[in-house]
Amino acid sequence: MKDQAGTRPDVSAELGALRARIDSIDDTLLALISERAALAQQVGHAKQGERIYRPEREAQIVRRLRESNPGPLSGETVERLIREIMSACRAVEEVTRVAYLGPAGTFSEQAVHKQFGHEVDALAEADIDACFHAVETGRADFAVVPVENSTDGAVGRTLDLVVASPLSICGEVMLPIHQTLMRKHGDLDGIRRVYGHAQSLAQCQHWLSRHLPDAERVSVVSNSEGARRAAAEPVAATLGSEAAAALYGLSVVAARVEDEASNTTRFLVLGAHDAAPSGRDKTSLVMGAKNQPGAVVKLLQPLADAGVSMSKFESRPARSGTWEYLFFVVCEGHRKDARLAAALAEIDSRAAFLKILGSYPAASA
Ligand SMILES: C=C(O[C@@H]1C=C(C(=O)O)C=C[C@H]1O)C(=O)O
């Protein structure tokens, strides 16, 4: 026998009992989250004018819960949930203002929420320079800017700005990037133009050559600008995040069109200070070598001698017009760790130029 909703009575009794338990757990969850928020408020008072956002403390909380995660939720999901709870708790102390490369709907906006949760003032800026400027002038507390993509390499503008800026790196965000091809109406047929940020176009070049060999590729300042144009041009499509489709009233033509399935962008979080040690940290630095044979090897030798691993080495013209180069290095450890501190002091004595850009918690794998 079935009831009106089409379920058998024994099934609906079981469902009812399970839902009653879920309701009771939700009550407990809410009580506990409220208690947590009240404690965060007390921490806020105890901080007495000290910095509110503590990236190292948040990283430690995330790691502890990921390690003790009993399942069935994935580690990523546990991280997302606890970061959202911390975001809400932080907001009862103070709402954090975070500048990012806008407009709304960009991958940079996703990176802001991945790191800071949704209870933030996310400020869409026109370009990467404006993100730095917002923090330097006190209009924002932090900036989140792209620094490197796993398919397409370094974001040169970010590297150039970070050398000159008084800001420090206090965090990194790793964001898997899935590109979506969207247009106003229809499928692949009749697409004559594809908009996208240069990085997005570069990440999808093989897919585009295979599926839309005759479409013109037009690079625009952001994928959101591409979405805005595609919404008005029936023969155009754009690349971008799936979130942009909903935001600009576009329909998805094809999902995950990036050439590399593991396509990931690394973002930097910049603020007035770097982070305190969290137990699993990275340190970013930039150095200039004297124009002598073996100079770069001499600069890197202290890291090798101290057994410090390097996760990135990138060279960039020093913009002096004389074929001088700057070398960007990311190494494991915090600049306050004895081994790394000694190695950095040694590099400083050998380098023509050394700037420590900041130490910060390593993002979860
Ligand atoms: C509550 C605090 O402030 C903020 C909020 C945190 C949280 O909700 O767990 C952790 C670190 C800070 O970013 C704290 O410093 O402990």
From TrEMBL:
SMART domains: CM_2 (SM00830). Residues 97-272 form the Prephenate dehydratase domain. It catalyses: chorismate = prephenate; prephenate + H(+) = 3-phenylpyruvate + CO2 + H2O. The keyword Cell wall biogenesis/degradation does not apply. Residues 9-97 form the Chorismate mutase domain. GO terms for cellular component: cytoplasm. The record marks 265 as: Essential for prephenate dehydratase activity. SUPFAM superfamilies: ACT-like, Chorismate mutase II, Periplasmic binding protein-like II. It is found in: Cytoplasm. Residues 284-361 form the ACT domain. GO terms for molecular function: chorismate mutase activity; prephenate dehydratase activity. CDD domains: ACT_CM-PDT, PBP2_PDT_1. Pathway: Metabolic intermediate biosynthesis; prephenate biosynthesis; prephenate from chorismate: step 1/1; Amino-acid biosynthesis; L-phenylalanine biosynthesis; phenylpyruvate from prephenate: step 1/1. Its EC number is 4.2.1.51, 5.4.99.5. Keywords: Amino-acid biosynthesis, Aromatic amino acid biosynthesis, Cytoplasm, Isomerase, Lyase, Multifunctional enzyme, Phenylalanine biosynthesis. GO terms for biological process: chorismate metabolic process; L-phenylalanine biosynthetic process. It holds the Pfam family ACT. Coiled coil: none annotated. Catalyzes the Claisen rearrangement of chorismate to prephenate and the decarboxylation/dehydration of prephenate to phenylpyruvate. This is Bifunctional chorismate mutase/prephenate dehydratase. The lineage of its organism: Bacteria, Pseudomonadati, Pseudomonadota, Betaproteobacteria, Nitrosomonadales.
